[in-house]
């Protein structure tokens, strides 16, 4: 953050409070331009109904049957190259822990406002309870509140910045984060193998074991005019790998496929996995991060947990040498994740324009 920009440019308004007080309209600063609003046409709805991101059962991934392993590897490879998104089942994380994590956070967002305000965040770190991204004054805002916290590296992990309520929330968050770090490590091996590399190569490109991990919990309150706004504007994730625990009762995530927005149909106790910008860079765009956004609902709130598995923040990230050829030179210059993250934070979510603007001139 610039030194003269210590706080948000305008007073923070909690969207949850707006939701409780808005009957049939929403404030103008949440109304998106017509081109960015969710489409409500029946033609798009019909197209959407017949599509979903790939669903992949990881059950036999490292089992004795090589044919099963090869099939799972192939499914993940195709999903990374064609979609940038997929759902995984039989992933090894206990269903009861997934449910407990989501419900713990739902309870937090329903605590009295004065308790939540003790964790209010600032643009300097984003850590804590927040309601906007980017520091542009007068920006059109998203219809959501969130909580952001660091899990790794240990130097940034501060339990005092995690909610103390509801009771046992810190223990639940800690256990959940540990399970997700292990699962991401397994997926990084799969992605490396599918690129024709040593299974540790992507992890090494991230800085080895000394990586970053953080959690953003999204709370999307009910909205009286969902056709005018978005819960989260179109963007690709700036980090490495994202593991989303969605609200499997209330769909809301939309993924761009060609020129259409596909509303993801969450499977019970599945994680939605997506490629972030840093893996797009490391893979020299063989894997692509994909635009996604969130729509809101007039009848129901939604809670989702996005766990980000990121490179070490201060090492240059650039296309891996093994993936650079005469026919496909390096598409991106080196940039640390810290530098990239600051670039994003200043501008807020803007589709794929962030990572595309970094491409080396040809």
UniProtKB/TrEMBL annotation:
**Co-factor requirement:** L-ascorbate; Fe(2+)
| Fe2OG dioxygenase domain ranges (all copies) | 210-311
What processes in GO biological process is this protein linked to? Answer: defense response; negative regulation of defense response to insect; regulation of defense response to fungus; regulation of jasmonic acid mediated signaling pathway
Record GO terms (molecular function):
dioxygenase activity; jasmonic acid hydrolase; L-ascorbic acid binding; metal ion binding
Q: Which SUPFAM superfamilies match?
A: Clavaminate synthase-like
Q: Which UniProt keywords apply?
A: Dioxygenase, Iron, Jasmonic acid signaling pathway, Metal-binding, Oxidoreductase, Plant defense, Vitamin C
List, alphabetically, the InterPro entries matched. DIOX_N (IPR026992), IPNS-like_FE2OG_OXY (IPR044861), IPNS-like_sf (IPR027443), Oxoglu/Fe-dep_dioxygenase_dom (IPR005123), Plant_2OG-oxidoreductases (IPR050295)
Q: Which Pfam families does the entry mention?
A: 2OG-FeII_Oxy, DIOX_N
Catalytic function, reaction form: jasmonate + 2-oxoglutarate + O2 = (1R,2R)-12-hydroxyjasmonate + succinate + CO2
PROSITE patterns the UniProt entry points to: FE2OG_OXY
Family classification: Belongs to the iron/ascorbate-dependent oxidoreductase family.
- Per its record, how is this protein called by name? Fe2OG dioxygenase domain-containing protein
The lineage, from the top, is: Eukaryota, Viridiplantae, Streptophyta, Embryophyta, Tracheophyta
């Amino acid at each position: 953050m610039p030194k003269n920009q210590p706080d948000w440019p305008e007073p923070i308004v909690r969207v949850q409070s707006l939701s409780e007080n808005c009957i049939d309209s929403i404030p103008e600063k949440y109304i998106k331009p017509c081109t960015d609003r969710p489409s409500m046409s029946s033609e798009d709805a019909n197209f959407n109904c017949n599509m979903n991101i790939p669903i992949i059962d990881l059950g036999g991934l490292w089992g004795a049957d090589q044919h099963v392993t090869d099939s799972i590897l192939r499914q993940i490879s195709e999903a990374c190259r064609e979609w940038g998104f997929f759902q995984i089942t039989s992933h090894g994380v206990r269903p009861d822990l997934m449910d407990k994590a989501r419900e713990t956070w739902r309870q937090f967002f329903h605590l009295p406002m004065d308790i939540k305000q003790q964790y209010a965040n600032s643009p300097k770190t984003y850590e804590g309870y927040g309601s906007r991204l980017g520091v542009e004054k007068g920006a059109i805002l998203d219809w959501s509140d969130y909580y952001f916290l660091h899990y790794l590296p240990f130097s940034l992990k501060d339990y005092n910045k995690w909610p103390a309520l509801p009771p046992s929330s810190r223990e639940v968050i800690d256990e959940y984060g540990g399970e997700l770090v292990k699962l991401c490590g397994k997926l990084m091996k799969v992605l490396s193998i599918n690129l024709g590399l040593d299974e540790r190569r992507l992890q090494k490109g991230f800085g080895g074991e000394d990586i970053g991990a953080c959690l953003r919990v999204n709370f999307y309150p009910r909205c009286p005019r969902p056709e005018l706004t978005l819960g989260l504007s179109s963007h690709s994730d700036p980090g490495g790998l994202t593991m989303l625990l969605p609200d499997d009762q209330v769909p809301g995530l939309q993924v761009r496929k060609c020129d259409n927005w596909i509303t993801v149909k969450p499977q019970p106790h599945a994680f939605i996995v997506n490629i972030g910008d840093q893996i797009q860079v490391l893979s020299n765009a063989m894997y692509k991060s994909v635009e996604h956004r969130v729509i809101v609902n007039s009848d129901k709130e939604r809670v989702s947990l996005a766990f980000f598995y990121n490179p070490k923040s201060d090492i240059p990230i650039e296309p891996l040498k093994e993936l650079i050829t005469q026919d496909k030179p390096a598409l991106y210059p080196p940039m640390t994740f810290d530098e990239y993250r600051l670039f994003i934070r200043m501008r807020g979510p803007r589709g794929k324009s962030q990572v595309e603007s970094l491409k080396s001139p040809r």
